[in-house]
């Protein structure tokens, strides 16, 4: 028996964007649409210490759906469901795998 089912995975892409901008206070994580921007800061010694935004990490998350076809083993099962206004009858006939996990 062939079973068709959707399979989903998430993919993350990280882009390093040089900024090199001086800051008066620490920057925080922010979102632009579905992109999470993580500031990377460093303290740079000068005559006075100032905060410079070194770069930002732009993290984009996306979902990928693919179709998989696999063989599966299960017992012979009968299924009946009655619900107004429909009645369904199913019977699955496949081999049973007796292995225990």
Word description of this protein:
- With 101 residues, the protein is mainly beta.
- The chain has one domain.
- Helix content is 0%, strand content 70%.
- The strands form two sheets. It has a four-stranded antiparallel sheet, with no helix packed on it.
- Strand 2 (30-32) and strand 3 (35-44) form a beta hairpin.
- The protein is rod-shaped.
- The two termini are 22 Å apart.
- The mean pLDDT is 80.
Strand order of the largest sheet: 1-4-3-2
- Count of the separate structural domains: 1
How helix-rich are the residues, as a percent range? under 10%
Mean pLDDT: 80
- String of helices and strands: EEEEEE
Q: Report the principal-axis shape.
A: rod-shaped
Radius of gyration computed on alpha carbons? 28 Å
Helical stretch tally: 0
Percent of residues in beta strands? over 45%
Major sheet details:
4 strands, antiparallel
Number of strands: 6
Our measurement of the CA-to-CA distance between the termini, rounded to an integer number of angstroms, reads 22 Å
Helical/strand content category = mainly beta
Low-confidence stretches: none
Please outline what is shown here.
This protein is an all-beta fold and 101 residues long.
How are the elements arranged and paired?
Blueprint: E1 2-23, E2 30-32, E3 35-44, E4 50-71, E5 77-83, E6 86-92
Antiparallel strand pairs: 1-4, 2-3, 3-4, 5-6
């Amino acid at each position: 028996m062939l079973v068709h089912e959707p399979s989903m995975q998430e993919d993350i892409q990280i882009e390093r964007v040089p900024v090199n901008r001086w800051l008066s206070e620490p920057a925080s994580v922010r979102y632009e649409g579905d992109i999470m921007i993580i500031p990377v800061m460093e303290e740079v010694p000068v005559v006075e210490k100032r905060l410079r935004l070194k770069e930002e990490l732009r993290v984009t998350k996306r979902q990928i759906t693919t179709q998989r076809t696999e063989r599966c083993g299960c017992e012979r099962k009968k299924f009946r469901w009655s619900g107004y206004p429909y009645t369904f009858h199913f019977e699955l006939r496949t081999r049973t795998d007796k292995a225990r996990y």
